[in-house]
Amino acid sequence: MSTDRPHSVSVAGVIVDDQDRALLIKRQDNGKWEPPGGILEREETIPEALQREVLEETGIKIVLPATLTGIYKNMTGLIVSMVFRCEAADGTPTTGDETRALRWATREEVTELADEAYAIRVLDALGAASPPAIRAHDGVKLV
């Protein structure tokens, strides 16, 4: 049996508005712009985790099911992330305990605001990648 630590699994939701902009959050812990999301809890299904994380970080309830647009592996952090294109069902964007700021961003703004590893997730979702993209990164840059 391997003594390596296991991977974590996370979800992120890219909420897209009618102007084809994505809702980004500025994280409280590191000040980086990313789509809302986080690690699955032990008892949660993937859709439950997606709905919970997006609601906690944005105040928006999303429509389920959402469309899977990519799977991403952080090679240094050992996190496998599933990213979904989401539609808002209810709520107004608001900051929470984990969120410093929120912003609707165009494709161009996404690439200026977010590290490459997170910008590509949003761009894949805006393009509704089909089949879903499968990519690897080091936490900042694609590898």
Verbal overview:
- This protein has a single domain (8-137), classed as Nucleoside Triphosphate Pyrophosphohydrolase (Alpha-Beta Complex).
- Helices cover 22% and strands 36% of the residues.
- The two termini are 28 Å apart.
- The relative contact order is 0.25.
- The radius of gyration is 14 Å and the shape is globular.
- It has helices spanning 46-58, 107-113, 116-126, and strands at 8-15, 22-27, 33-34, 37-39, 61-62, 67-74, 79-86, 88-90, 99-105, 133-137.
- Strand 2 (22-27) and strand 3 (33-34) form a beta hairpin.
- The strands form 3 sheets. It has a 5-stranded mixed beta sheet with strand order 4-1-7-6-10, with helices on both faces. It has a 3-stranded antiparallel beta sheet with strand order 3-2-9.
- It contains 3 helices and 10 strands.
- By secondary structure, the chain is of the alpha+beta class.
